[in-house]
């Protein structure tokens, strides 16, 4: 785990922390198995990775994303440049991904529906 986040990570964290984005809670530098991800929304199983210009090994990223997807996570990758120049667009992308995720605990069929009270027959 890195002690010092990059400037783009710091800027994005300022917008994700304390449930500022749509009320969703994120964790920074979260560990999932052997992987450390930049940001994780545990309730929606959404990972946000911020990739730098020196981020050269796309094959490793693809393998890691596939392994995380096999564990039920979705990975959204954004560039350092996008975070620095278009953070609103990045936040829209993350919100869109969150909206596409299924609710973690859908209610069983019929639960929560009001039912007519049974009337005793005389």
Number of helices: 4
Strand content: 15-25%
Largest sheet: 4 strands, mixed
Q: In the CATH hierarchy, what is the class? A: Alpha Beta
Rg on CA atoms, Å: 19 Å
Tally of separate domains: 1
Enumerate the spans where pLDDT stays under 50 for 5 or more consecutive residues: 112-122
Fraction of residues in helix: 25-40%
Shape: globular
Describe the structure.
- This protein has a single domain (7-99), classed as VSR Endonuclease (Endonuclease, Chain A).
- Strand 1 and strand 2 form a beta hairpin.
- Strands 1-2-3-4 form a 4-stranded mixed beta sheet, sandwiched between helices.
- The N and C termini lie far apart (72 Å).
- The longest helix has 14 residues, at 87-100.
- It has helices spanning 7-16, 58-70, 80-85, 87-100, and strands at residues 27-32, 35-41, 46-51, 74-79.
- With 122 residues, it is of the alpha+beta class.
- The protein has 4 helices and 4 strands, in the order αβββαβαα.
- Helices cover 35% and strands 20% of the residues.
């Amino acid at each position: 785990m890195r002690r010092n986040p990059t400037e783009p990570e710091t800027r994005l964290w300022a917008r994700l922390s304390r449930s500022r984005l749509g009320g969703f809670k994120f964790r920074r530098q979260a560990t999932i198995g052997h992987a450390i991800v930049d940001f994780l929304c545990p309730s929606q199983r959404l990972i946000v990775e911020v990739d730098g210009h020196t981020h050269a090994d796309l094959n490793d990223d693809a393998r890691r994303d596939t392994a995380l997807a096999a564990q039920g996570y979705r990975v959204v990758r954004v560039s350092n440049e996008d975070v620095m120049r278009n953070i609103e667009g990045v936040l829209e992308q993350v919100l869109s991904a969150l909206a596409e995720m299924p609710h973690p605990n859908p209610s069983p069929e019929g639960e929560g529906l009001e039912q007519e009270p049974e009337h005793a027959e005389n």
